[in-house]
Amino acid sequence: MNCQNNHRKIGIMGGTFDPIHMGHLILGEQSYEQLKLDKVLFMPAGNPPHKKNRIGRAADEQRVDMVRLAISDNPHFELSLAEMNETGYTYTYRTLEELKESNPDTDYYFIIGADSLFAFEEWREPERICAACTLVVAVRDHASREQLRERIQYLSEKYHGHFVILDTMNIDVSSHLIRQWIAKDKSLKYYVPDLVISYMKENGIYRKKEV
Prior knowledge:
Blueprint: E1 8-15, H1 22-34, E2 39-44, H2 60-70, E3 77-79, H3 92-102, E4 106-113, H4 114-118, H5 126-132, E5 134-138, H6 145-159, E6 163-166, H7 175-183, H8 194-203
Parallel strand pairs: 1-2, 1-4, 2-3, 4-5, 5-6
């Protein structure tokens, strides 16, 4: 087991996963390797306040099923339903604080994209998020490493947080793009795990164009 001060190191990949795709899985695996984590939790969001209009999307149970299928062959990936069982809106700071309270011997690493980094001040209680975890930032095309470092320095000073840049390739794929491709009957091969592709076809998910 990888330990620091006898603490377990657990990564968290949060998101709506509507649907989960290879980009999510690659970021989870890279975080596991680079940060020497014990495991990575894939945590589907139950009712995120910033994504209220979910017409034409997958049902909660379907999103959970797709995550379960996508990570089924990776022994250090684990499905977490911590946010799926919440009533009302789910907030990251609350989830992290509850995890820390239940597992005081665990250090949490919350994995986010660069877009989330630049919107971090809009999140609920950013200082409490920083107090409960290390934030792991994945690189995206629209932000250079210098821009990321400047933003991280600013947020670190303002919220007393600890941020780590993930050394990974830029993965130009999104759930929004995948949904568009499904509506247009485009191939998802190598962008989405085969088990998830089969599940989406069997259940007719995302066949209608988004409104």
